[in-house]
């Protein structure tokens, strides 16, 4: 048997492993089930491709995207590794030929879609083949708690049932700890070796910028980065086209990219961007799956992403070459309505809706946090980040001013208590500023001591205080679809006068926060 190092050089042309690759490969070679979480670009493919060569026989790879499978197969073949894919784009004749060479043991790595992988006919074909390893790519799709649930992934457990002796490696770029557990459970992995790489992309700088007057700000940024290539993500297909056109009007080379364009046009635009013929691609999230342009210098979001997993993945396309790159998010709280609309439309059942709302809530918290953005992101993904400040985000570049907000905090706590811990943040802010809203009056809350007690701050400022208190744990939000504010032990300490509450100094009315872009 050839050693893994000689295979690494001979077939893949690398002289050393990337972080975690070797440990993961060793676990696979020891025939263990493995769960590997590594950032995009971390080199996940090698973790099953190299063992495939050591094991001989057949390695089956389940992957959700036909386009990606094709790239992988082409890449393997170019390295002299016999690989194939069986997918819906094949005709009957072609499929029969591939099936025959599989049974003859002449294919080392076989890519299939999750739908195909569980078909009885396909499973009986595999039974006759010499399967030595099963790899499940994009494994987070199996979990309802993940950000891209695909029901067909759920059935993949059948692979472990039919091939109990074959090791399974599950791979994903994003999985919070709960999703990791779910992946292991759903796939019926046996005592899996777990590897979680760092999510810290040290060369990326994170900024959140208010969305007011966003176009001039965007143009100003782009003007300062004339020679750089970047991706601007927009929510809608139409917005990508409008923005590309407006930018061309300002003398930039920009093209749109979205799923509604004819295939030929889309490919052309992607090629133009990859080859550097066009500097800016205005895209929906359809763009980026499988693009491998190393020198993307900025990723800008003009609209709020639906969750941090998406945001992390999309910004992860910046700076793959390791050089500095910017991730800028134009943020307006109003964008949350669009996300709410999406969630209501796309999530069929209550469990998924609730999960989606929690994720959207974390996305908002990221935008509104007064602390380090990187720490926030890493903490979200379950990674410890020992520093308080990273130096590579807007919050670390210009820290917010903090004042002793104990008095304001006590008023908020009193208000939450008076409305019976049954309402959310906007309602509490309404009561504090003495809103004339019908809901407040119908509930009789205009008679409470807290009603109109919040003089000195605007409704928006109260709202921010409330959110900050939730983030800092002085009060608790139940989260989910209709989050309700409740008091906790720390709230009671505040009331008792034993716990001061530092809050972010509000911006003077009318002035827009931190013009960093
Ligand atoms: P992922 O699937 O985790 O996003 P890939 O498997 O596509 O990552 O690998 C990302 C990039 O890293 C690819 O360009 C690949 O060729 C390269 N790569 C993988 N392993 C190594 C290695 N050991 N040394 C150098 N480059 C590597
Ligand atoms: Zn920071």
From TrEMBL:
Pfam family example for this protein? HRDC
Q: Where is the signal peptide?
A: none
User: Which InterPro entries does the UniProt record give?
Assistant: DEAD/DEAH_box_helicase_dom, DNA_helicase_ATP-dep_RecQ, DNA_helicase_ATP-dep_RecQ_bac, Helicase_ATP-bd, Helicase_C-like, HRDC-like_sf, HRDC_dom, HRDC_dom_sf
Cite the entry's keywords alphabetically: ATP-binding, DNA damage, DNA recombination, DNA repair, DNA-binding, Helicase, Hydrolase, Isomerase, Metal-binding, Nucleotide-binding, Zinc
Domain spans labelled Helicase C-terminal: 214-363
Keyword Protein transport annotated:
no
**Which SMART domains does the annotation name?**
DEXDc, HELICc, HRDC, RQC
Keyword Membrane in the entry? The reply is: no
Domain of life assignment: Archaea
Q: Which family does it belong to?
A: Belongs to the helicase family. RecQ subfamily.
Q: Can you say what this protein is called?
A: DNA 3'-5' helicase
